[in-house]
Design a protein that fits this description.
single chain; 461 residues; 13 helices
């Protein structure tokens, strides 16, 4: 680089302009002029220093190229220059290491240290059951061919609606309250609160806090297809865990029995109401029959009709006999014979009586009680049909009532446990390795995402 390049071009000329009038110099003006000249001198010195540095850099580069050329000529080897300068640690690299320690190593160390040094051992007890319903058949239902069997409960399979209700009941504050009254859950769950405040609760928590903690310690798995239910309870000793599971089973069975009692009480009450209604209807139907008999002076209409029909049959027989006698007299007797007139008179009387008896069954006929025999028979048939229907309804209601009472006398729904509450021999919770690994995984993901966001913003600048 030439010396002309290093020479400042913007240095003001020291030669005064003769065209400018020379003003009188005061002390302040001389100081200001001296200060301005000093600044110009400092600027020129900085420019010269910068130019000197650039010259030194260029000289060093040429020296390195010369050394490489000498090595190539002397040893016959080609010197390959590095594409980039050697990597060196910078401030952002130290910041990345510090952030990794704060965002990854520190949370993992805290979580692992707490889990392995302070977290109390938890023991699990498992049980599984299904809601069952038994068949109920009463003697009255058997006599009527199963009439009212629909009131006797379902088959032997699981009852889906009851299982759904039971599943919700196990997560309710009512279940927590019942178990707490029998076992003192607050004392069980706060035993290691001083040592392990994260996985335990204080002994003075409210029922709402206890219910939320219950959801963490008692897990209920429910299969909606097969209606199988599995319960896993956690506690800080094997005996407490099994006691909680047994109490949950007992309270669930008690709740199912309460539902069954309500259903059976409702069924019995409805059956009793139906029976009372049927009995009242039967009484009214029988009273109507009695009133009909009193008003028409007929005990049995069918028997009375048979009697009337028998009378007509007898008269018809006498009519046939009279006709025969009249024919015989007409062939042998002469005109004006008194026997002929007597036979003719007897035949007319018989025919008149037959007509009168038949007229009783017509529209204008007068029967017992002064009413039309046809209307009497029609009224009796209507009353008889009502009585027959009332009797059948009464028998059906009585059967349903017997069935409801038979169902109420036994336990129609119950819990069938196919896995009894177990007693743990070792602690499998709080799953220290899994929780530590989970913390490490999410901490690493957060650190990686944060680093990528930092470099993306840095590249945009």
């Amino acid at each position: 680089m030439s010396q002309d390049a290093a020479t400042p071009t913007n240095t003001p000329s020291a030669t005064p302009d003769p065209s400018q009038p020379k003003a009188p110099q005061t002390e302040a003006e001389r100081l200001a002029q001296a200060e301005a000249e000093m600044r110009v001198a400092i600027h020129d010195a900085a420019q010269a220093r910068k130019a000197t540095q650039m010259v030194n850099v260029e000289v060093n580069r040429l020296r390195r190229e010369l050394e490489d050329a000498q090595i190539t000529i002397k040893e016959g080897k080609t010197v390959i220059k590095a594409v980039a300068a050697p990597a060196r640690m910078k401030g952002r690299h130290y910041a990345m290491i510090a952030s990794f320690g704060i965002m990854v190593l520190l949370p993992v160390g805290v979580a692992g240290g707490y889990l392995y040094t302070r977290a109390a051992d938890q023991y699990a007890s498992t049980m599984a059951f299904v809601v069952r319903s038994e068949d109920i058949k009463s003697s009255a239902a058997d006599l009527l061919g199963g009439l009212g069997a629909g009131l006797a409960g379902g088959g032997g399979g699981a009852t889906g609606a009851d299982t759904d209700i039971l599943y919700e009941f196990m997560h309710s504050p009512d279940m927590v309250r019942r178990v707490d009254e029998r076992l003192d859950l607050r004392a069980m769950y706060s035993r290691y609160h001083t040592q392990d405040p994260y996985f335990t609760i204080p002994d003075d928590v409210t029922i709402e806090d206890l219910t939320r903690y219950w959801a963490k310690m008692v897990q209920v798995d429910y299969d909606t297809t097969s209606h199988l239910m599995e319960v896993r309870s956690l506690a800080f000793s094997p005996e407490d865990a099994r006691a909680i599971a047994e109490t949950v089973y007992a309270e669930s069975s008690r709740m199912i029995n309460e539902l069954s009692d309500i259903a059976r009480a409702d069924g019995t009450r409805y059956a009793q109401e139906d029976l009372d209604t049927a009995l009242e209807r039967l009484k009214k139907a029988r009273e109507a029959v009695t009133q009909f008999r009193v008003e028409n002076e007929i005990v049995d209409v069918e028997a009375d009709i048979e009697t009337q029909m028998g009378l007509i049959a007898v008269l018809q027989g006498q009519q046939a006999t009279a006709l025969i006698e009249l024919d015989m007299l007409s062939d042998g007797a002469r005109s004006g014979d008194p026997r002929l007139e007597q036979a003719q008179r007897r035949l007319e009387v018989i025919e008149t009586r037959i007509a009168e008896e038949r007229r009783k069954f017509g529209a204008g006929g007068i029967g017992p009680g002064g009413t039309s025999y046809a209307n009497t028979v029609s009224e009796y048939e209507r009353i008889a049909v009502d009585r027959e229907f009332a009797e059948r309804a009464y028998v059906s209601a009585l059967s349903a009532f017997d069935t409801a009472k038979a169902e109420a006398s036994r336990q129609s729904r119950y819990l069938a446990a196919y896995i009894r509450p177990t007693l743990a021999q070792q602690s499998d919770f709080p799953q220290r390795a899994l929780r530590t690994g989970t913390v490490a995984l999410f901490s690493m993901l957060i650190w990686i995402i944060s680093t990528l966001v930092f470099y993306a913003l840095r590249e945009r600048r």
